[in-house]
Amino acid sequence: MNTTPIIQLNNVSKHYSLTNEAGVSDIDISISKGDFVAIVGESGSGKSTLLKLIYGLLAPNAGEILFKGEHLKGPHERLIPGHESMKMVTQDFNLNLYARVYDNISGMLSNEDVHGKEQKTWEMMEFLGIDKLAEKRIVELSGGEQQRVAIARAIVTEPEVLLLDEPFSQIDAVLKTQLRADLRRLCSFLGITMILVSHDPTDGMTLADDMIIIKDGRIKERGRPSDIYSRPSHTYTASLLGNAFVLPSDEARSLGLKPSKGKVMIYPEWVQLKSTWSSRRYQVKDVFFKGFYEELLLEREHIKIRALNMQPGSVKKGETVQVLVSNFLEFD
């Protein structure tokens, strides 16, 4: 069994000028065939730069990128930048707006086997639920429909790696949920290695087997989404993934906690509205309706925390509630 990673970055750095820190620094990543990897970070964190390096659209200033153990050629080494075994779907979709959906997808295949070309095109459209749109022009489609066409166009040639740059940025929440499910099916059914970059941590947590957190061009941590969420190594990760709040240890003691390190991180779901002998009284400064729950902004002696209320409407702004923290994590 071949254990060579399909993609490997060894101490890779890319900066756009000597004085500009934008880009990525000292990146070491190994990705196995069939993995679904999400690279998550804020805007400007370097995640799109990292994706372009993997695809071969950018060349690193230092370090080396390998594809199946061999040097991956950069734009200065290829007439047409980009690796032939990979496809990349960008935010602008790169579609022919005035051509039919069918033609946008089938145009990626050769005419050597016309029947096979037609069959494969229809299979991809059916897989992504866009077969009924075959005769429509791209300009007539919604953003979500265009996104599906772009993905079908990318995978119809059966690449080994599919790269997705902010794939959900132009579609609404309902379509996001369905498209996420379709991408999971694609990864599993076709055996494609997928690498997704997103500023939305939900994309990584719901889709990926492996999540990479990047900040200021450097990898902060990496692991299974559930592990990173439950046991983050950095307060930045907790804030990014779960809207956690961080308190100095002296302020945390006002919650009845007994930390031994300098800082305490608490997710809002760990703050319970509960009346016990160890509860603390907090004033409700604001209430944010989220559907089946509310997020509360609470304050006590100028210390602000957040809590989840699973009974919307039961708490009003200005009221006093009793709070109990069920869990917390400590950081130096």
Question: Could you explain how this protein is built, in words?
Answer:
It is a single chain. With 332 residues, the chain is an alpha+beta fold. It has two domains: 7-239, Rossmann fold; 243-331, OB fold (Dihydrolipoamide Acetyltransferase, E2P) (Beta Barrel). 26% of the residues lie in helices and 31% in strands. The chain has nine helices and 18 strands. The strands form four sheets. The protein has a six-stranded mixed β-sheet with strand order 6-7-8-3-9-10, with helices on both faces. Strand 15 and strand 16 form a beta hairpin. The chain is globular. The two termini are 43 Å apart. The model has no long low-confidence stretch (mean pLDDT 91).
Distance between the termini: 43 Å
Broad shape: globular
User: Gyration radius, to the nearest Å?
Assistant: 24 Å
- What is the domain total for the residues? 2
Task: Name the descriptors.
Rossmann fold, 2 domains, six-stranded mixed β-sheet, five-stranded antiparallel β-sheet, 332 residues, alpha+beta, 26% helix, 9 helices, OB fold (Dihydrolipoamide Acetyltransferase, E2P), 31% strand
